[in-house]
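Researcher: Here's a chain I'd like modeled. Treat it as a single chain, no partners, no ligands.
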Amino acid sequence: MSSPEVDSALFLLFPMNLVLSPILALVFIFLSILWFYPGGLAWALSRAQRSIPGPPGVVLALSGTAAHRALAGLGRSLQAIPLMAFSVGFTRFVVSSHPETAREILNSSAFADRPIKESAYELLFHRAMGFAPFGEYWRNLRRISANYLFSPRRIAAFGKQRRAIGEQMVGEVRELMGSYGEVEVKRVLHFGSLNNTMMSVFGKRFDFVKGEGVELEGMVREGYELLGVFNWSDHLPLLGWLDLQGVRKRCRGLVRRVSVFVGNIIEEHRKRREKFGGTVEDGVGDFVDVLLDLQEEEEELSDADMVAVLWVRFPKI
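Model: Modeled as a single isolated chain. Structure tokens:
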């Protein structure tokens, strides 16, 4: 093989004969600076003027099972216990392992809005108080919850039902101990909490081993599983188009089921009100009736808003 042919072959295998062009060198240096910036890539690309100590690169702790321990260890190693910055993809995070700093963060208006996870948005939680942006709509939801869901009169009105649910839980524990010699306390507490919420929100109790109860419990379980899953689409926009983890697809399927389930209960209340009449007075009555009364007074409260508010009231597993 002649010398020109050898040179041509080398150029195809190793462009520029392994000599890095000035442009690529500058790009490499620039990316290295961003990568090793305190707090990582997302903080390097932000407009924040103050540098907060934190690990460089991208932190993967949130995708693990003990993120709080991993982040606490990073804070100690970097002497950033009061406040530490870190990046997950293109999302900026701060974390504090100091109570005074944590209290200041919780009281700061800069942290009033919770970042909208894709799963929270798809599950309609952006229309409920948990993820709704701070503003008039959020304050209205907070007022409704304070006045009608957690008012002393309303809590007292459901005292007998809570007592009945508590006695039922004690009976279940006694029966399980007698039959099996052990009790899965978490399961008993979960079903008791779920029934307590359903009584105050929907005005009815469910049997969680058959029928609607099984469907309801399954939706609650899947909903909180989707809210808690670490979704790379939240932090890498390109992956959001692909939905590689299938979170969006699962969320939309679950929302269809929830909308039908809750929508049927709302319609049952509407028909009952048309037949027997009556409104909720002084905050006493189930929460569906409260929302229906408010919907008649305030046109801004749509059926979709009602489904979202009722859905977010389901207790955590």
